[in-house]
Here is the input.
Amino acid sequence: MSLFFQLVVSGLTTGAIYAALALALVLIFRATNVVNFGQGEMATFSAYVAWQLTQWGAPLWLAVLASLIVAFSIGIVTFRLIIRPMMSAPVEAVVVITLGILVLFQAACMWIWGAEQLSFPSLFPDGGFDIGGVRVLSSAIGTLTILLVIALAMGFIFRFTRLGLSMRAAAFDHARSVLVGVNVERMLMLGWGFAAVIGVLAAILIAPRLFLSPTMMTPILFYGLAAATLGGWDSPLGAIVGGLAVGVAESLGASYLSFIGADMRIAVPIALTLVILLVKPVGLFGSYKVTKL
Amino acid sequence: MNDDGFRAAAIKFGLFAIVAILIPIFAPGYALQRVAIAIAYAIAILGLNLLMGFAGQICLAQGTLFGVGAYVTAILNATYGISPLVTLPASAAVAAVIGLVIGLPALRLQGLQLAIVTFGIAAAFPQLLLKMGSLTGGVSGLPIEAPEAPRFLSDSPELWLYIISLTCTGVAALLVSLMLFGDNGRSLRAQRDNPQIAQALGINLTRTRLWAFAASSALAGLGGGVFGIISGFISPESFLAILSINIVIGSIVGGATSIVGAFLGGLFMVFVPTWASDINLSLGNLIYGLALILIMMIARNGVTGFIEKWLSMTFRRMASSRRQIETREELI
Amino acid sequence: MTLDLKKLSVFYGKTQALFDCSFSVGEGEFVALLGSNGAGKTTLLRAVSGLLPFKGSVAFSGKALDKIVAQKRLALGIAHIPQGRGTFSEFTVDENLSLGATIVSNRSQVREDKERWYETFPRLRERRNQLAGNLSGGEQQMLAVARALMSRPKLLMCDEPSLGLAPSITQEILAIFKTLNKDHGMTLLVVEQNVDITLQYADRAFVIEAGQIVASGAANELIGNEDIKKSYLGVA
Here is the structure.
């Protein structure tokens, strides 16, 4: 039984990583109706900035704060230079653009900092607790806590504040939002800015474990997408639950399903995604949309 | 096709033929092989154009089906000694079957959802290849022998490979354009633009979509087989998830509804990253990413869309007295 | 608070959709803009709302609108209910009203106004937490009106309120407009295809055909004018 719990805990720990990326993806989708395939790489770049600052002697908290500001600016600039001119473009063009963003930021990291894996300081103390014979890392608990706080804050802002309402409206329909006086561009810009901030927080939470490198986020892109799909693209809390569920399912599946084993572990989240899409497409915490003809 | 359309197609085909003949004259051997590879990718892109551009389904697993085709060719050739060219129909067929298997659940999925699931499949494929090591040769991959060249080409193996890939693509392009004219093409576009109305008009959505998946996958498989033959050797490294992404990029940059665009996309896939690295090794990918973004911003319907728009503006000014209605989906 | 259009022309690319349209809507008037399908009614409203570029001049209370961005129209007091109602279908009824009050900074005013319109439209109160897209056509029209009124506009422009609605509901909506006009002094510009019902409520009307204003007059005169109705409005 303790193997089971160990696997669950280990799954929750990796799941927290997926949840972090999923949260950033969900935010940008909710705020701007775009799935930004390059979200992870943008975040990695800003995380590198934080790392660089610590290398130059800055204390961690200052470096993190600075990277939040940098990320916000990068989000806004990316929106204004690249996304805004493409707002009326067909969906496939926007998809390619976000893929271009993926390539661009990954290459920028590679160019400036090289390809080796770097160690990134953790926000949390090392070590952990023994609960029921299973080791739980402080960093895992800390990561989940921060993610939960962010998700709750996001959810609150979107559901209960005027700003959140305007942002959701701007993402829903530009023309109608203009008619009620919503400054659509500013809302989208803020959306990209905030999503970039969440993204860099996710990267900073992930980097200590995965090691900072230009391709840090690339292998987990699919997991983040799967987590967001599972939880519901319009639910920040769902992104977290989705991420944890994907992590646990993958961990259990890899051990208990011998025909999958460790090397085909990705098959579990694929199957999970397929199931949720066929059974409840809006996701576990997603809300049903009105079907219009 | 009306007369003007036919003339336009003939002109395009003529230009294309001229370019196709000129390339081997001016390109050195190694470059020619890479052009042949670009053409193999182009076959896969052609399939994706059918699926994405015409049927409107976003598929991020075209690289997987490409890989399936390559491995079928490799396995039949290396393990069973079957002549490489003969394996190609099998590659296409197996890929088509797998494409159908993917297409079945895809019927219930919409755009983004389909993209995510197919992306997962693309990510899982290399692992699957490794797991089935006894069949696929695992990490070490499989060799593929080149089909025997006719005597007059025996000192230019690259030219021979180039001709093979060109022929295969030509056949593929011809088949695709035939498929797109008339009812099938109309059904495809109808169900992309407005599925509910298409269904009300009696178009069998399921059959149309599944057919699009099968055709697209067959093309990807064919392309993969050709790729295998030209490369002489394949391994899981060549078929990572990023390949599917690059194929999508190639498709859209070239022009998602254009047959010529598929070729441009293939060339883009093979040459632009290398050109970028040649300019500056470490900046290589950076330039590739920038080039990608810039191209999409300037030519949001892809390069062919941009050229067509430019051409039509020029011709409209030149021949303002003759009114021509140009459809957005020019095929060849 | 008058709306003045002088020689308003709109082009969609090379095609001209409006040709030198000129008219005025005076403060407190209930004016109808009538025309058949494709006559240019929606284009005209969209130009006034800043959603389309135009030539000529559009002025509200003497202020030229051509330099002002679309989303600032509401701040000037011009509310536009678009064709099809512009409902935020995946938001609740209450959220739709809140969206209508986006530019209102006074929270208590927003609360008051919501109460007021829930009083006036009890069916909306019943459904306040339901998704707006699930409401019937008539209810969505009421929601659109209430939403527009949340910003306390001085000029309310409505594009084809009768679209997709049964005649009885159309009467209800137009009666509400009439009340707003008579009791609250709201200036109204209503664009419609449904001539007979609209002329019963409006003060004045303009007729637009193929992008041009072809007739105008007091509503009670136009009601009796069979020629105009036949030539331009497709009414037998």
In short: The mean pLDDT of chain C is 88. Residues 3-86+153-233 of chain C form a domain with the Rossmann fold fold (CATH 3.40.50.300). The beta strands of chain C are 3-12, 15-25, 30-34, 55-60, 63-64, 78-81, 155-159, 187-192, 204-209, 212-218. The CA atoms of residues 77 and 153 of chain C lie 4 Å apart.
